[in-house]
Amino acid sequence: MAFLLVCMCSLLLMFLISYVLQLFGDARRRLPPGPTPLPLIGNLLDIASDLPHRSLSRLAGRHGPLMAVRLGTVVAVVASSPSTAREPLLPLLRDAVLGLLHRVSEMSAASGGGAPVQVGHAAFAAMMDMQWRAMFSAGLDRGASRVLQDAARDIMEAAGSPNLSDFYPALAAVDLQGLRRRFAGRVGTVYHLVDEQIERRMRRRREAAGDGEARSDDDLLEVLLDMSEHGKDDGKVAIDKDLIRTFLTDIFLATVDTIASTLEWAMAELLQDRETMRKLQEELKNVLGSRTHAEYADMDRLPYLRAVIKETLRLHPVVPIVPNVAEEMVEIHGHVVPRGSTILVNLWAVHRDAEAWPEPNRFLPERFMLRQHGQEAAGRALGTATTEFELIPFSAGRRVCLGLPLATRMLHAMLGSLLHRFEWTLPLEVEENGVDMSENLGFTMTMATPLQAIAKSI
Q1: Nearest-5° Cα angle at 406, 382 to 90
Q2: Domain boundaries, the chain
Q3: Which residues are annotated as a binding site?
Q4: For the chain, give me the number of helices (H) and strands (E)?
Q5: Where, in this chain's numbering, is heme bound (predicted)?
Q6: Does domain 113-319+352-457 fall into CATH 1.10.630.10?
């Protein structure tokens, strides 16, 4: 008993010594200010009181737009304003531009009926089928669609769940929460369906080659298989089947959920702001006329639609907190960020910074419209074309979302078509109680309560 007591006291003393040394070490390294961490758990309790982006935003209100927090044993520096987000992201943007110029130089040298609709669910299913056709030139049957939808949502939820190994890297090999097993199992489900398509296509290509027939498929899988064959023929590093499967799965998962959730947020905002919806539908009517759907080619003539989507992405960034790792010691606003530290750019807070955005919590697409004197009101392009970093829903630099071109095209076309083709209203119960705008955070930020609305053909 005495031995156990001695051991417990020794452990407690070690924790206290470690805690004191930690505080002195942080002071010597000139870390940004932040909440005082507790022994062992750091500031996890400060963050666990709400969704992470909201908790960090409140802490930033007390400690400043650049602050240091301890997540268990991991030091994280959180940027919550345009100016602080600029410094860690601008070098990444510069690297991306230089990398692009280098690559281009090399290439140049080488030469219904009134029942409520679950808006997010419908958008998710439509995006899933569209993306599957783009990859494989084949639609999804109902059974496969249901399996894929369940797997994709579970993957996104598992990917965004708090993981102990993120806060205590020494536990990474243990997988105490089972998140890695859950993630691997659901990804395996998607891999199986993708593998079926790859095997079917490779078999068809072999048969066509044996019969001397020309191949008729024109999709992403065909491009990747052609690249794989040409790589072998040219003696270059070939794209193998595993790489093709992984690439197609990543593209599929990243595209489907992000576009569907953003579309749902946009509709939720518009259904609560009838005047904004009326103005947008009037613009669509004037431009599209009797056509049934919008196309990306129409976007230059639909400035208010572009403004609505920008404002939606400002208030509801797909991924509210973007993590980066400091590959070397850097200095931000006079504070030192140690090498190996996690840098969390809180896009949710950046996009609601009152100094950059008047009435930051209000849905106001007009802020992106041209003013009388030809100046935009606080709006910029979607992050990659701005150096101000007030609006970066897709991050910036090398970490910029690879789905940006597809996402912007699909969001404009899908939202424009929905509003031009249908008249939308809320169910009576939702109208009386209000739309639940609370958030559910997985890998992407979705609505905690799926949006339901009534669509009537115009």
Answers
A1: 35
A2: 25-79, 113-319+352-457
A3: 401
A4: 15, 11
A5: 401
A6: yes
